[in-house]
Write a structure and sequence with these properties.
256 residues; two-stranded parallel sheet; NAD(P)-bd_dom_sf; Ergot_Alk_Oxidoreductase; NmrA-like domain-containing protein
């Protein structure tokens, strides 16, 4: 549902008392999400709110990726007394999504398997990619708790169950398609293609390009640096593997 179409009277009429806020990383994200937080505050009926945030390494005021700064500002809003004294919330900081990083490369490669697969990942740098469904499962578990109060005003990190490298990705693909494939690591063309197809302004995708290089090519978001919070493991431990994500992306593909 489009958050911009929701006002406080709708929340009251529908008797909404718990919400999951997971807005897409578009240029209007701060406007859309901050306005919705104001709507929730105005309704005075929301007992508990779970907010999806981004990679914990991105939540700084001067991060090059624009949506890192957006989430930093939104988290600061919730921490302010105007919200904290009235709203009960939990923030989920998710590591890099496996689907967002891998699916564009796989879809492009499927169009011509004789060409090298263009991977944005480095060959050797580890990364604890997480599946969006695993993040959603944590949010659902929190929102379904009879008493979520132990999680009020807490911030949790969610990473995938394992570290993978670009080389691992290629091995998984080769195992599934049963043939050797060529690959180009740290290939920025796939990133640029996705950004242009989604019609991101150049200054926006340049900010993402700059920030992701530091993160994806240095091992910054490996498990040792982005460990899943103990509370998350107790609630709904992430279990989806990168290999499973790749298998699903290649399911039904018969041109081998």
């Amino acid at each position: 549902m489009d958050l911009s179409s929701i006002d406080s009277s709708w929340l009251i009429a529908k008797n909404v008392v718990r919400v999951y806020v997971a807005t897409p990383n578009q240029t209007s994200q701060f406007v859309d999400e901050s306005e919705f937080l104001l709507v929730c505050k105005e309704a005075k009926t929301i007992q508990y709110l779970v907010k999806l945030s981004t990679n914990p390494h991105f939540i700084i005021a001067d991060h090059p990726i624009y949506y890192g700064r957006i989430h930093w500002a939104l988290e600061r809003m919730l921490e302010e007394k105007e919200f904290k004294e009235q709203a009960n919330w939990t923030i989920l900081r998710a590591n890099v999504f496996a689907t967002g990083i891998l699916l564009p490369s796989i879809e492009m490669w499927k169009k011509d398997t004789n060409k090298p697969m263009a991977l944005l990942l480095d060959e050797h740098s580890p990364l604890a990619l997480v599946h969006p469904a695993d993040v959603g499962a944590v949010a659902a578990k929190l929102l379904s708790l009879k008493d979520p109060s132990p999680h009020f005003h807490k911030t949790y990190t969610i990473s995938g169950p394992e570290d993978v490298t670009g080389k691992d990705i290629v091995s998984y693909v080769e195992e599934i398609v049963k043939k050797k494939i060529d690959v180009e690591y740290k290939n920025e063309k796939v990133f640029k293609t996705v950004m242009e197809s989604d019609k991101y302004p150049e200054n926006v995708w340049r900010s993402m390009e700059k920030g992701h290089k530091k993160n994806l090519w240095t091992g910054q978001s490996r498990l040792a640096n982005t460990e899943t919070s103990d509370e998350v493991i107790e609630l709904a431990a992430p279990h989806s593997t990168v290999k499973q994500t790749i298998q699903h992306a290649l399911q039904g593909y018969l041109s081998f």
